[in-house]
TrEMBL record:
Belongs to the 4-toluene sulfonate uptake permease (TSUP) (TC 2.A.102) family. The chain crosses the membrane at residues 67-90, 97-117, 129-155, 167-188, 194-215, 222-241. This is Probable membrane transporter protein. Coiled coil: none annotated. It is found in: Cell membrane. Pfam families: TauE (PF01925). It is a multi-pass membrane protein. One of its GO terms (cellular component) is plasma membrane. Keywords: Cell membrane, Membrane, Transmembrane, Transmembrane helix, Transport.
Length: 242
């Protein structure tokens, strides 16, 4: 481990926390590509899952009254089926292959978010299940399960406050599924706990600042900045550089 690695890891965590606190998603898209380059995909994914579920918990009580739990339960059922598949890929594939896969998924998800495409149809249990399954697969392999859910929910009739609340509650449940799967798979060990201690303070500070910015900052400007950060994270962490 090189000397600056923990500091770089914490800096990436701080930036990811800002996006998560502001919008309810986006942490993994910013965090996973560079963190995978620093410590490897398995440690990056398991550390993010552990830290996020602990530090994002205070956001849940305020979000719960604004959401429909039955719809979220259907989506979580879809995620429960596919998270183990993603976790199996995370455990089975070699690190270099995983880094290319994570960069590829992040690039596709970035394109989806940047395109502005949103699902305009009427919410339906089958659609809920399918979106949850897609999100669960990407969450299991790299914790990058946000964009399918965002594209699905932000196309509805509710405002961005309601959509943010639904995203927060869904990912609380999805993170629990991921964490349980990682534990059963033996992916979480002492190294995960060590890097969680490095990541925790910086990520928590980012969550706090991002949540405050949500009520103060211009949503469009922050969204553009987040997309730029995701693109930068993907490009600078490509395996071709090292």
């Amino acid at each position: 481990m090189s000397v600056p690695t923990p500091a770089l890891f914490a800096l990436v965590a701080l930036t990811a926390g800002l996006a998560r606190g502001f919008s309810g998603f986006g942490a993994a898209l910013i965090f996973m590509p560079p963190a995978s380059a620093l410590v490897g995909p398995q440690l990056a994914a398991t550390t993010l899952a552990l830290v996020d579920i602990v530090l994002a918990a205070p956001m849940i009580p305020r979000a719960l009254p604004k959401v429909s739990l039955p719809a979220i339960a259907v989506m979580l059922a879809g995620a429960a089926v596919t998270v183990p598949v993603g976790a199996w890929l995370l455990k089975s594939l070699d690190p270099m292959t995983l880094r290319w896969m994570i960069a590829g998924i992040a690039t596709v998800m970035l394109g989806l978010l940047a395109s502005g495409w949103r699902y305009r149809g009427t919410p339906h249990p089958l659609a809920d299940l399918a979106v949850g399954a897609a999100s669960g697969l990407f969450s299991g392999v790299a914790q990058i399960g946000g964009p399918p859910v965002v594209a699905y929910w932000l196309g509805g009739q509710g405002d961005h406050t309601e959509a943010r609340a639904k995203i927060i509650v869904f990912f609380a449940g999805s993170s629990l599924i991921s964490l349980a799967t990682y534990l059963v798979s033996g992916l979480i060990g002492r190294d995960t706990l060590w890097w969680a201690l490095v990541m925790g303070p910086a990520y928590g500070l980012g969550l706090f600042a991002g949540a405050r910015l949500f009520w103060l900052a211009d949503e469009r400007s922050f969204r553009r900045a987040s997309l730029l950060l995701i693109a930068l994270a993907v490009v600078t962490s490509l395996p071709v550089w090292r």
